[in-house]
Specification:
Layout (H helix, E strand, L loop, with lengths): L4 H19 L12 E9 L6 E4 L5 H9 L4 E12 L2 E2 L8 H5 L2 H7 L8 E6 L39 E2 L17 H15 L16 E6 L6 E3 H13 L4 E4 L1 E2 L5 H12 L3 E5 L31 E6 L18 E4 L3 E4 L13 E6 L1 H16 L7 H10 L22 H10 L8 E7 L6 E5 L5 E6 L9 E6 L8 E6 L6 E5 L5 E6 L9 E6 L8 E6 L6 E5 L5 E6 L9 E6 L8 E6 L6 E5 L5 E6 L9 E6 L8 E6 L6 E5 L6 E6 L9 E6 L8 E6 L6 E5 L5 E6 L9 E7 L2
Parallel strand pairs: 5-7, 5-9, 6-7, 9-11, 11-12, 12-13
Antiparallel strand pairs: 1-2, 1-3, 3-8, 3-10, 4-15, 14-15, 16-17, 16-39, 17-18, 19-20, 20-21, 21-22, 23-24, 24-25, 25-26, 27-28, 28-29, 29-30, 31-32, 32-33, 33-34, 35-36, 36-37, 37-38
Helix pairs in contact: 4-10, 5-8, 6-7, 8-9, 9-10
């Protein structure tokens, strides 16, 4: 349901009248809780805009619940507050010890300060954009004309030359002295910006880790270091829409925001790195975030996407800082966060603000911009790296500090960041930028018919529902060039409970074709595969019935015209037939490979495009009746495709690779834990274009939807969740060429 702008205004007005009538006699002088503002954030169904509504704080939860019950409301939540995660100290030490600790000088030998094209958005108390050690690195909105009172770039903000103040809704992002302020609030954002990207090699002051990158100052906290979630949401969207590659969040709160999680997840999916502080507590009383989460750092806790890099603080000996919160479910990495000397906000009109530099400061919010700076520096190696790659480089190359923190193993993330190791590793990965293939997944029974497409790093590319979103029978997936134009289409088959409905989509989910492969009264679903089985240069769709059908394999063109029709096994077999397509005899024409489903022996058969048997074999012990899934790929790089077989159920999740000429077992490995007995689905693709296919495995049922990728030798490469980790209905998997 969509609302016109006029209708939205009417609805918001009615909501306001409703709230007034309901609570007009209620006292409005209750104090703010300190954790939220006396406001609700409301989004209407069919809309994107979030409206802010002032309410009686005594009844804020009741009003929230009441609004949620209204049919026109999509979501509502309290406008929670955040606080800067700082801990200033009185000690003084004039060197930036942490740069040597993380081996920054060695990293600069590779990347001299980083690229000015990489922009770090600092969402904080404001940044002193005129500071001599910052002004050269302050982001400039080149599409905006200074002071003309016009939104020249049509981004919704007038005269936003160097960012925006979301607290006051003005274009000046500097800290403000004409409101209640304290020292930490005034200095915090400037200090954070300087740690990330203070100007370097200029013969004065200090140096930021990414001293060649730009800072986009976005003021979301007031001069006492507090702010609302609404300001942060707006700033996140501004950062994404205006070209930031890294978002630094050096603040914490204790309340979870759906809207902020949505905004940060969207930022991540649009290619932006998000870095957030773990939070500080009273010395010797830090918080385990696994039990008592802070936000925004824990907004991706239990999510299938790790869209926030959470940062804890360590000292100069790599011990956890006494004040730093921790927790394996929220913290991804650690960075130095004690006794930091840095850039301060300068204002000669105020007695305590007449120094350009000072210290010493401690806190997880001080550790966070070190990681943000490292992300920017690493991206400078090559801006074509994905955000997932940058994140993986940083986390995988951190120095393990478990031995310095007994009893805290894994609670401080992967370790303390190492800039040199990260940059060095990034250079070694320059050959991995090109995406040759994508991974396609389909949700199994119990989930919606959700098809998702990922790159080889597990980063989402697209997603759509192949059938009515209320259907819960699962969806089968395959891919092939069905039009002969060099571009692969995605083929889906409805799972059990649905008719044998085959549909064809482009990568963005736009329907191209569809037909029923069997009698539409059949409710066992349909298996799908694709390949050029007649040698005409155009791929065909190959189908087989799902459970309780027979073994009738059919071949169709994209229009649903039958080109071949045969039985792969006995006509009375009803255990379903699994299908794959590939050239296994080297004649340039694809064969059809079938595997008997549960109830049949592990019988693999190979047919030509008209259903004539070429050869067959048993992939596992012939007495095994759990079924076998099949795939095709050139695993050993000899130019001849091998046949892959996996256990479909009732046995450990082994993958076997067979020579298609001699039918000899060439490789066997376990794709999940040995006690997982529910079967796996398998696919192949040559991601790194070395002429050897990698092996992709997905659980068939009763396990988290974790996709595992293995080398051609069966060694694990990477893994990711294709759906929520709480979904246990299984995943079907296929691959397609990246067009």
């Amino acid at each position: 349901m969509m609302f016109s702008r006029k209708r939205k205004i009417i609805i918001i007005s009615l909501l306001s009248i409703f709230l007034f009538v309901l609570f007009v006699f209620m006292p409005f002088n209750a104090p703010n809780s300190g954790h939220y503002y006396n406001e609700l954030l409301v989004r209407l169904k069919g809309g994107q805009k979030i409206y802010k509504v002032s309410v009686n704080p005594l009844f804020i939860k009741l009003i929230e619940k009441t609004l949620f019950s209204l049919p026109l409301v999509d979501y509502v939540e309290v406008n929670y507050s955040f606080q800067a995660a700082f801990m200033p100290t009185d000690s003084f030490y004039s060197q930036q010890w942490y740069l040597n600790k993380i081996r920054a000088p060695q990293a600069w030998d590779f990347v001299r300060g980083g690229s000015q094209d990489i922009v770090i958005a600092v969402l904080d108390t404001g940044v002193d954009i005129d500071h001599p050690d910052l002004k050269e690195n302050i982001w400039l909105n080149k599409e905006e004309i200074r002071g003309d009172g016009v939104d020249n770039d049509n981004n919704g903000y007038i005269d936003d030359l160097h960012g925006w103040d979301f607290v006051r809704n003005v274009p000046d992002p500097r800290p403000k002295f004409d409101e209640d302020y304290n020292e930490s609030g005034i200095h915090h954002g400037t200090l954070v910006a300087g740690i990330a990207s203070g100007v370097g090699n200029n013969k004065q002051g200090v140096v930021g880790l990414a001293w060649g990158s730009k800072i986009m100052p976005l003021r979301v906290l007031n001069s006492q270091g507090t702010g609302s979630v609404e300001h942060v949401i707006r700033a996140v969207r501004y950062a994404v829409n205006n070209g930031a590659k890294v978002i630094n969040l050096s603040f914490v709160g204790t309340s979870k925001s759906f809207f902020l999680a949505e905004a940060l997840r969207d930022a991540w999916r649009k290619g932006v790195i998000v870095v957030a502080a773990a939070g500080n507590e009273t010395i010797n009383q830090p918080v385990n975030l696994n039990k008592n989460p802070n936000y925004p750092i824990c907004l991706d806790k239990n999510d299938n996407e790790n869209f926030i890099i959470g940062v804890a603080a360590v000292d100069d000996a790599d011990h956890k800082a006494l004040f730093s919160d921790f927790g394996s479910m929220c913290v991804d990495v650690s960075a130095p966060g004690t006794r930091i000397y840095g850039i301060l906000t300068y204002n000669p009109n105020y007695e305590n603000y007449r120094e350009y530099y000072g210290g010493y400061w401690s806190g997880t919010s001080i550790a966070t911009p070190i990681v943000s700076g490292l992300a920017a520096l690493t991206w400078s190696v090559n801006p074509l790296f994905t955000q997932k790659q940058i994140q993986d480089f940083i986390l995988s190359q951190a120095d393990n500090i478990d031995s310095f923190n007994p009893g805290m193993e894994g609670e401080l993330g992967s370790g303390r960041v190492n800039a040199y190791a990260t940059i060095n590793y990034a250079y070694s990965q320059l050959g991995t930028l090109h995406q040759s293939h994508y991974i396609i997944t389909g949700a199994g029974p119990g989930g919606g018919p959700h098809v998702r497409v990922f790159d080889s790093a597990g980063l989402p590319v697209s997603g759509f529902f192949a059938y009515d979103d209320a259907f819960r029978g699962g969806v089968q997936v395959a891919a092939g060039d069905l039009k002969g134009d060099g571009i692969d289409e995605i083929i889906t088959g409805a799972g059990p409970g649905g008719g044998p409905h085959v549909r064809v989509f482009d990568i963005n989910g736009y329907a191209q074709a569809g037909f029923f492969a069997y009698d539409d009264a059949f409710r066992g679903g349909v298996q799908v595969a694709a390949g050029d089985v007649d040698g005409d240069g155009i791929d065909e769709i190959v189908t087989a019935p799902g459970p309780n059908g027979n073994s009738n394999v059919k071949v169709f063109d994209i229009e649903g015209n039958v080109k071949a029709d045969f039985f792969a096994y006995d006509k009375n077999f009803q255990g379903k037939v699994n299908v794959a397509v590939g050239d296994v005899d080297g004649d340039g024409i694809d064969e059809i490979i079938t595997g008997a489903g549960p109830g049949g022996g592990p019988h693999v058969r190979v047919f030509d495009g008209q259903g004539n048997v070429k050869f067959h074999f048993f992939a596992f012990n012939k007495n095994f009746l759990g079924g076998v899934n099949v795939a095709v790929g050139d695993v050993d790089g000899d130019g001849q495709n091998e046949i892959l077989a996996s256990v479909a159920s009732e046995a450990s999740a082994y993958i076997r690779v067979f020579d298609s000429k001699l039918l000899l077992l060439r490789l066997q490995f376990l794709s999940y834990s040995k006690d997982f007995y529910y079967g796996v689905n398998v696919a192949t693709a040559d991601f790194d274009e070395d002429n050897r296919t990698e092996i992709i495995v997905a659980p068939n049922a009763s396990k988290e939807p974790q996709i595992n990728i293995f080398t051609p030798s069966g060694d694990p490469v990477s893994r990711f969740y294709s759906y929520s980790r709480y979904f246990h209905g299984g995943v079907t998997v296929a691959t397609m060429r990246a067009n």
